[in-house]
Amino acid sequence: MSEVNNNNKNNYANTDASSKKSKQNKKRKNKSPQLQPGDPNYKTPTQLRNARKRRKTKTTKATTTSSSTNFNNVISNNNNDPSLKYLSNPKIAPTVRNAIRFFRDKSCAPMGENHDTYFPVTVGPKIGWRHIARLAIQRRKKKTIQQGGGSDSSTNTKKKPKSKTRIGLFVPGSHELLPVPDCPVHHRRINELIKVLEEECNDLNVPIFDNDDDTTDDFGLRYVAVAVERSTQKQQLVLVWKEPDEIEDKNKNKPLNTLIKRLVKLSNATAKATDRNSSPSTENHNQKLIRLHSIWVHYNNSWKHSNSIFDRTGRWETKFVHDDDDNDIDADPLRVPLYFPPQVFRQANLDGFSKIIVNIREWLNEQLLLPSSRKPTTTTTTLGHCLELYGGVGTIGLNLIDLFDSIESSDENPFNEKCFHAAANEITTIDDGSGRQQPIIKSKRDSITYITKSASDVVVDNYSSLQKARVVIVDPPRKGLDPPVIDALCRDYETSDNNEHHQQQALIYVSCGFDAFRRDYEALVEKSGKWTLDRAEGHILFPGSDAIETVAYFTRTK
């Protein structure tokens, strides 16, 4: 083998030498005489330099135009999808502009001043950011909106059209389906699985339950939900199934089991091909490639006109989990393990939400440097007790445990608490936001607690937790804070402790509904007079949609 390599090296050396000589001869042969002043086409050094600049500008402009054209083509190919309306420039969305205008007025900033000084807005990647999607499914001959506009042209043919299963989004205000086979904001693993799922449903003739069409099956597949585990790129699939009526034959659920077996077989085939370190696409261009983390079935037997994808009373079944995985997919915004079974809320853009957590940590660290934040008998930089309302599985709170003596998180979803404790038990270090890992002592675990209650109940039943909290974190749904929470936050706490440290309180409000935030701001600041806005920032977590995530930092004296 070494001889062959040496011979090859000699051959390469000879080839390079001869090639070099021929190039030099060619260069001498083609070299034109240098132009002198007064000759036609003579250019001064400055003129030559300007000509080079113009050529470079022209090339850059052509490349930029081409890139812009490709991006616009992505949008035009999905021009009926309402979630892509502002994808080319997310900051022009009406809600974003309203938020900028609102904080400009509150900060009394002069007209024309850059909003980064009073309300900076962060926009992350525009493509492939969505790691979770809940989609409708239909099988119809008519009223299916096609990409690029218009309805299915097959309905105009003389031959009776064959119905086809499609997966996508409902057009706002209707039950007309917009297929999204290659949605640019979806993670590519979502698009891959949706494509395979459509094909398998058509091949196996899986019954489809249509909420709005009495001519279709009265049982069958109703919705699908796909989530991607960031660390492994595997897909968590939920099949939302409408069961037959009790009086009917339960064997009608067999197509569901057949579909699941088929998907598992495809996933295992992909896994084996990957384990062999080969590219499955080179073996069979038609091979369907999916890597499943798990398959769940949620039985939603609610009224057909109900718009809820998951029914609170519906049962769940885990049908398949890959051998190397747990039931719940995990994510780690700042290397804190978080668990997300399909029954809990998960941010669709965890990468973007991680930036929010980093900014919250930065603001809290600033508070630690204030003299009023230090305990009177020590210089230890901790912020005492933290109460988290609408906490989910602890996405925010668990990433802040090193900054507090104790954290009490809460949420009303009964599936959250198990995920919270599973994550808390695994935390040994935490990222301080700069990439450095800070160790967490074991005794800290006892001070991290969770309450399965609504925020309204927590502020009443656990009022002492709110009263002693140095920091309160709220991350409510789009409707904003519940009235009892507003009332509790604006109350005089009647504490007998006159210690300056205990008298200070901060509120960190993470809002996904700007109209509700504006209403809550007026109640907290303008009506009660208790709270003062310290800082606010915007994060566009859903580029293309008319939405903004607002993070506001308030302070008050108890």
Could you list some keywords that capture this structure?
558 residues; alpha/beta; OB fold (Dihydrolipoamide Acetyltransferase, E2P); Rossmann fold; seven-stranded mixed beta sheet; 19 strands; globular; RNA_M5U_MTase; U5_MeTrfase_fam
Structure description:
Helix content is 33%, strand content 20%. By secondary structure, it is α/β, with parallel strands linked by helices. The N terminus is likely disordered. Helix 4 packs across helix 5. The strands form four sheets. The chain has an eight-stranded mixed sheet, with helices on both faces. It has a seven-stranded mixed sheet with strand order 4-3-2-5-6-7-8, with helices on one face. The protein has two domains: 196 residues, OB fold (Dihydrolipoamide Acetyltransferase, E2P), CATH 2.40.50; 220 residues, 3-Layer(aba) Sandwich (Rossmann fold), CATH 3.40.50.150.
Write the layout of secondary structure elements.
Blueprint: H1 2-30, H2 45-76, H3 94-107, E1 121-123, E2 132-140, E3 164-170, E4 177-179, H4 188-204, E5 220-228, E6 235-242, H5 254-275, H6 280-283, E7 292-299, E8 316-321, E9 329-331, E10 338-340, H7 350-368, E11 385-389, E12 406-411, H8 416-426, E13 429-431, E14 437-439, E15 448-452, H9 455-461, H10 463-468, E16 471-474, H11 483-489, H12 500-503, E17 504-511, H13 514-527, E18 532-540, E19 549-557
Parallel strand pairs: 1-18, 6-7, 11-12, 11-16, 12-15, 16-17
Antiparallel strand pairs: 2-3, 2-5, 3-4, 5-6, 7-8, 9-10, 13-14, 17-19, 18-19
